[in-house]
């Protein structure tokens, strides 16, 4: 327990998490993003992360165990503080930080979702839905697009660059589909 404020440590909250009331959970999850945490400035967004860092955070999104908190702190803030030190930090500050990270991951997820291709009937009939390769498929696509022979090179690129390339490719693909439809319409014999 933090004596100055009577706000428990993150470790204490994790120990009693199952016993928290809904209002206590809501209070924790609605704490503001701290300006500084673990001796580091908290960024305004997650736009500075690499693609690999973003994928790593997305894998642990929604969990709030001690290991996850340490991974998020080390990934976003680049802190090397010991796990015990991180977990002794006031819970309101840590959970405010985690809520900020969660909101950012949701925002980024919506960006990627908005540029996803909606398959047409022919693509569905051909089994396009069977081609879901998960995050590795995206890493592989970017590595092939850029001519990388090592997938780790794709993971070290800023995620915004990967997103912009994906967006450009999606727009180009949509244009090519529209062009194909226009050309096919012209080639159809008139009745």
What features would you describe in this structure?
The protein is mostly helical and 191 residues long. It is 62% helix and 2% strand. It has 10 helices and 2 strands, in the order ααββαααααααα. It has a two-stranded antiparallel ribbon with strand order 1-2. A hairpin with a 2-residue loop joins strand 1 (36-37) and strand 2. The chain is elongated, with a radius of gyration of 22 Å. 19% of the residues are buried.
What's the quick description here?
With 191 residues, the protein is an all-alpha fold.
Describe the SSE topology.
Blueprint: H1 10-16, H2 22-29, E1 36-37, E2 40-41, H3 51-60, H4 66-77, H5 83-87, H6 91-114, H7 121-126, H8 134-146, H9 151-155, H10 159-187
Antiparallel strand pairs: 1-2
Helix pairs in contact: 1-6
Keywords:
single chain, mainly alpha, two-stranded antiparallel ribbon, elongated
**What is the helix/strand order?**
HHEEHHHHHHHH
**How far apart lie the N and C ends?**
82 Å
Based on CA inertia axes, which overall geometry fits? elongated
Helix content: 55-70%
DSSP strand tally: 2
Overall mean confidence score, pLDDT: 89
Q: Rg, please?
A: 22 Å
Low-confidence stretches: none
Beta percentage is under 5%
Strand order of the largest sheet: 1-2
């Amino acid at each position: 327990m933090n004596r100055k404020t009577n706000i428990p440590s993150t470790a204490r909250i994790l120990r009693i998490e199952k016993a928290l009331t809904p209002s206590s959970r809501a209070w924790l999850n609605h704490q503001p993003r701290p300006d500084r945490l673990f001796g580091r400035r908290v960024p305004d967004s997650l736009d500075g992360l690499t693609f690999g860092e973003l994928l790593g955070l997305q894998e642990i999104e929604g969990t709030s165990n001690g290991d996850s908190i340490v991974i998020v702190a080390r990934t976003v803030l680049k802190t090397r503080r010991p796990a015990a030190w991180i977990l002794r930090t006031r819970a309101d500050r840590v959970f405010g930080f985690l809520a900020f990270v969660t909101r950012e991951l949701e925002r980024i997820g919506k960006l990627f979702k908005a540029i996803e291709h909606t398959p047409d009937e022919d693509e569905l009939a051909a089994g396009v839905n069977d081609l879901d390769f998960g995050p590795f498929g995206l890493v592989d696509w970017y590595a092939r697009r850029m001519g990388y022979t090592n997938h780790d090179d794709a993971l070290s690129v800023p995620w915004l660059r990967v997103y912009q390339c994906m967006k450009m490719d999606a727009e180009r693909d949509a244009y090519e589909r529209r062009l194909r439809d226009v050309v096919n319409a012209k080639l159809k014999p008139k009745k």
